[in-house]
Every structure is written in C-alpha cells, then in structure tokens.
Write a structure and sequence with these properties.
Aldehyde Dehydrogenase, Chain A, domain 1, 41% helix, 4-stranded parallel beta sheet, 415 residues, Aldehyde Dehydrogenase, Chain A, domain 2, 2 domains, alpha/beta, 7-stranded parallel beta sheet
Length: 415
C-alpha cells in the first residue's frame, strides 16, 4: 500500500504532464481567477489563520514569529497582487534562447522546459504558499507543499482554495498539493521521494535547511538563512546610514532579509553609535564588541556566537572595524551568503565591497530588506537561494526551469 508521500508524488507526476502542455493564456487565466478567489474568500482565510494564531500564543511562540504567521486583509490583498504579477510576467516555458548551425548542418536550439515536480518544505509564513504555488504553476511545475505546524490551518485553507480554482478550469487539482501531515516522519519521506520529486526546496530557519541538506536524497536547492550585515563606512552619510539600519533591522526583524549585525568603521563609531542607540532602544537589544561598548550605554557584551546567529528578533550585534578590509573579512567569515550592504560616499569602497563580499545580493546605500522577488520585479519568489549552482538570489520563474536541446536535421548520420 502506498504511503501518503508516494500517493502525492504519483498524483503530482500525472498532473505535471498536463500542466506542461498548457498555453500561457490558460495559465494566466487560472492565476487571475486564483487571485480573485483569494480576495473573495478573505474572511474564511482569516478565520483559518486565527486558529493558527491562537495555537501559537498557547505554545508561547515569540511575537516576531507570530507576526510572520499573521494574515490581515492587507496581506491577503498583497498575496493576490503577487499572483497577478506572476500572471503578467513573460512565460519562460517553450522559449528558445539561442540557436546555431553546426558543421554537420544540424540546427540546434536550447529551449526552456519545466523542472517537473517541485517539493517545498517551509515554515510559518502563509504567503509562501501562494507565492510558491503561483510561480510553480506559471513555470509548468506541479508542486507539493509541506508547511510547518504553526501555519497548518492557514496553508490548508489556501491550498484548498487554489485547488478549487483549478477544478473550476477543468484542470487536475494535483498540480498544487498540500501535505496534510506535519510529522517529521512524513517530512523525511518527502526528502527521499526520488521517484517523483525533481527538486526539493527548503525554506525556513537554519535547522530546517541543514536537516534537509544532510538528509535528502533528492536534489536540493538551498534557500538561505539571513545572517546579514550593514557596514557603515568611514565615508558614510550618517543620517542615511541610520535610516538604512533602522529599516534593515527593525521594520520586520523576523524575515530573512533583515540584518543581524551592524559593522561600523572606527572613524565614525563615536558619532554614529549613540544615534543608533537613541533610535533603536529599547525596542532593539544591542550586543556590542568591547570597543563599541565605549559608545553605548544600554548594550551587552557580544559573544562569539552572536556573530553567526540569525536572531529573527529585535536583537542587533555591533562590531567596530579599523578598515573596509576588516569589515569584508568579518562579513565573509560569518555571513550566510544572503544579503549584505555598505553605506558609503566613496565610489572605490563601494565597488570594492561589491566585488569582494560573497553574497547573493550586495547593496550600496540601500536596505537589505529589498532582497525579495516582489521587489526585484519577479512577481513573487520561491525563496532566496544562497547556493551558487543553478540559481542564486530571489528565485522567480526562470530559476524554476531547466532546458533541453532541440535538434533539426535533414537526414544526417554520423560517419
């Protein structure tokens, strides 16, 4: 007898075949209807989400994580708008990116095709459900979604709604499936679903991602934890730097593109750090190295583990450096290859930072909070890939495709 994951896998593989044959206009019509259905069913979705919120409070989940979980009418509208943007994006499937003629007079083209069946294991945020489903659908991939127990009722309601939209268009509802079991055993089965999954994408905290990386036998695209930094250079405009740090740390600390460490050049530390303390405390707890504590009145001494921790909370580590080289060395040693920023008026320092910092997204004079598929113009995202093979940075439609070679001949044989 098939277990749950084998059943979902078989259904997804069957649905992927139908999905790969759909024309762009058909897919766009479904997505537009999906967005409309999402808005029309807002009350039911909020009710399901409230069940998750009630459980979160009972289990003592911290407020920043509850914020990630929370749906509001505005967030539902944003989710619907993300789906509409995906519908408006060019469809990569079937596009022939280049063609050439060989010495054997064969015409060869490289064509974009779906990956097939994508599995996604993720935590907490219900918007991941609609982002992932819409991107997979538009790029011709069936998807199996396994969310965390924190957002179980929200995710269940969202997938049921999208499946209803598929059925309304006479399509196989298994194009978008939800794993109705949040146990570790079922997650482990998903990591070994080699007969059906073409790729598995974990999206969540470092514990989840490391568990999938070490345990999965199916191909994995690593989406990153965000141990991100802002470096305030000796040539920085301090007013600009303060606004960037405030936004990158405190606007929404529970997301992966928020910063965890502030790195400051020693020449501006005496002027800048008191401004940071005045602006961020008591909301944000500061943890500084010994040098920075000379300029801070309400900070604790940072430990070695603070430099490598993704807090996902109102906590900011602070490091003072003597040069941009020391800043880059510190960042490259401790970062998670996600998003890094420099604030500087020096062109040469900005370019040095861009060139030498190893991360998927590197900014000059802007907040790391922009590392987001929606903000990058991708409509939505599957996640932020921090690896270097196949996809890096926000993963949109193109990153969910592969390619095949199409060859035209007129009777050639190889001698």
């Amino acid at each position: 007898m098939d277990n749950l994951m084998n059943t979902l896998g078989k259904q997804a593989k069957r649905a992927a075949q139908q999905l790969s044959q759909l024309e762009s206009l058909q897919k766009n019509d479904v997505l537009i209807q999906m967005a409309q259905d999402l808005e029309e069913q807002s009350a039911a979705l909020l009710s399901a989400n409230q069940q998750d919120l009630d459980r979160a409070k009972d289990h003592g989940i911290p407020d920043p994580m509850i914020d990630r979980l929370r749906l509001t009418p505005e967030r539902i509208n944003e989710m619907a708008e993300g789906i509409r943007q995906v519908a408006q994006l060019p469809d990569p499937i079937g596009v022939v990116e280049k063609m050439w003629r060989t010495e054997d007079q064969l015409t060869i083209g490289q064509q974009r095709v779906p990956l097939g069946v994508i599995g996604i294991i993720f935590e907490s945020r219900p918007n991941v459900t609609t982002d992932a489903a819409s991107l997979c659908f538009k790029s011709g991939n069936a998807v199996i979604l396994r969310g965390g127990k924190e957002a179980f009722f929200s995710n269940q309601a969202l997938v049921a709604l999208m499946q209803r939209t598929l059925r309304d268009h006479q399509l196989d509802s298994a194009m978008i499936q939800f794993v109705n079991d949040t146990s570790h055993e079922v997650a482990a089965e998903m990591m070994h679903l080699n007969d059906y999954l073409d790729v598995l994408i974990p999206r969540g905290g470092s514990g989840l991602i490391q568990r999938v990386k070490t345990s999965a036998t199916v191909p994995v695209i690593e989406t990153g934890t965000g141990n991100n930094h802002v470096y305030v250079d000796s040539a920085a405009q301090l007013e600009m730097a303060l606004e960037i740090v405030k936004n990158a740390k405190a606007q929404r600390p529970s997301v992966c593109n928020a910063i965890e460490t502030l790195v400051v050049h020693e020449k501006v530390a005496a002027d800048f750090l008191p401004l940071v303390e005045k602006e961020l405390t008591p909301l944000v707890a500061l943890r500084g190295d010994a040098h920075s504590l000379k300029y801070l009145k309400q900070a604790d001494l940072a430990t070695e583990s603070d430099w490598s921790t993704e807090f996902l909370d109102y906590i900011l580590a602070i490091k003072i450096v003597a040069s941009i080289d020391e800043a880059i060395e510190h960042i490259n040693h401790y970062n998670s290859k996600h998003s890094e920023a420099i604030v500087t008026d020096s062109y040469s320092n900005g370019q040095k930072f861009l060139k030498e910092v190893d991360a998927a997204a590197v900014y000059i004079n802007a907040s790391t909070r922009f590392t987001d598929g929606f903000k990058f113009g991708f409509g939505a995202e599957i996640g932020i890939s921090t690896q270097k093979l196949h996809a890096r940075g926000p993963m949109g439609l193109e990153q969910l495709t592969s390619s095949k070679y199409i060859i035209y001949g007129d009777g050639q044989i190889r001698e």
